[in-house]
Amino acid sequence: MGQVSTLPQLSDLDDDALHAHYAPLGVPWFRLNFVSTTDGAAQGPDGLSGTINNAADNRVFHALRDVADVIVVGAGTVRAEHYRPNPKPMVVVSRSGEVPPSLRERRGGDLLMATCGQAPHLDETRERLGADNVLLLGEYAPDLPTLRRELLARGFQDLLCEGGPHLARDLLANGVVDELCLTTVPRLIASQHLRITAGPPIDVGLGLHALLEDDGTLLGRYTVEAPKA
Fold it and tell me: Strands 134-136 and 217-224, how do they pair?
């Protein structure tokens, strides 16, 4: 039986080294960050990612937030995962344009809404956040390449998306993403669970840039190719 190859260990990196390990590979840079079980589930039995992540994933999750300029997240994920205000600016992507309840104490400037002209909650969100903090990116659904351009125009260079799977799929399909950061936890849970992407089929190639290990958990960085037609 051959030897098991030794991967670089997460535990060997202090916080400064971990931040350096996750430095963006270019400027600007747009990343997705997800956790998944070995059999592909992006959520645990309760439908949340928090029940499958672990200490290693949490450490990388916070390191990526530390180096990011802005966090992009779908409104459904904000509601399901009960996102709370944090020190980094946040962009909520929503067809309805409604600010999720857990973020309503946050005001414009630190919170942007990316939505569309036909959003039913557009007027109230403009009043809550200020018109300059509501990004109209299309008529019936947010246009994601325009979202990237708009965020870059506002001075954000390191963009981090934390999901959910439907938004991730659409970002990948539109060729907006530069990198996928994926934690694979050593668990099998079967049943029916969302994967890290959900929606119509896509075909997007990945290149392995770096891989860390922590007690069986694999923490990968993958560069993202343009979607195939």
Answer: unpaired
Q: Which residues contact 153 (CB under 8 A, 6 or more apart)?
A: none
Residue 90's nearest CA partner among 71, 115, 69, 109 is 71
Residues of the chain with pLDDT under 70: 1-5
Cα gap 136→177, rounded to integer Å: 20
**pTM, full prediction:** 0.95
161-179 pLDDT, tens digit per residue, is 999 999 999 999 999 999 9
Output the six-digit token pair for 78: 């904000």
- Whether 80 contacts 101, CB under 8 Å: no
Q: Is 202 helix (H, G, I), strand (E, B) or coil?
A: coil
CATH architecture, domain 27-32+49-157+168-205: 3-Layer(aba) Sandwich (3.40)
d(CA 151, CA 199): 25
Strands (E), the chain: 29-37, 70-74, 90-93, 111-115, 134-136, 158-161, 179-185, 206-214, 217-224
> How many other CB atoms are there within 10 angstroms of residue 77's CB atom?
22
